[in-house]
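Subject: Sanity check before I submit

Could someone independently write out the structure tokens for this chain? I want to compare against mine line by line before I put it in a report. The sequence has 272 residues.
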Amino acid sequence: MTVRVMGIVNVTPDSFSDGGRWASTEGAVEQALRLVEQGAAVLDVGGESTRPGADPVSEAEEIARTAPVIAAVRARWGGAISIDTMKPAVARAAVAAGATMWNDVTALTHAPDSLAVAADLGCEVVLMHMKGEPRTMQADPQYEDVAAEVRDYLAGRAEAAMAAGVAREKIWLDPGIGFGKTAAHNMTLTARLEVLVEMGFPVLYAASRKRTIQAIDPMAVEATDRLGGSLALALEGARRGARMVRVHDVRETVQALKVQAAVAAGAEIRPR
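---
Independent answer below. Compare away.
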């Protein structure tokens, strides 16, 4: 099974990982095409930070940040482009600009018409689990059985999406690593990823540069200090059945997945 790599393109001034380095349209487009060159199969464009404590962004501002980037990338690349948003109007504008996937951290619960818009757009949809909302989600989250609760929630959201008219084959599930979960919850979800995989929907695993890595390695204070942990988690997610990993460090992740696949296949490595 080939695991696809989704490259992250944050068009935000307050991203937790890159501090707004690609906040301009030109900078974001250059970064997106750079990620494609590095091996990204999908680009995930976001105009609103969902880091813990993040403030919301207006619909108009989010569209102004993301739609021009998507249109410019689409003009130069024919691959898959995802819009990372919870707002139906932003998703509509993104698909009109050339996006082919809607990555929603609220699993289509943010607005009353989210489900209907997803069905109308006909694009692929990522349904993610989040306990609470970004500003408060890390305030002492509690679970009896995190893997079972995340599975049951996502099963319900997938059923709701299909009932609204979203085709089953268009639905992806994301356990929401770091979204209303402690480091222990995140590790349990990773170790038990099969509970989602066994549901039959493709799984997106996204743990790149997240703070849970610092909880394991206190020296990884800055997001950019977490490459090793990010690679370890991406490989583990892939090993446990994820069909796609969402990452900041595309080149390194693509290489790591290639080596992992070669080992799994028992490939003979010949010296050049």
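---
OP: Matches mine. For the report I'm noting this point. The longest strand covers residues 4-10.
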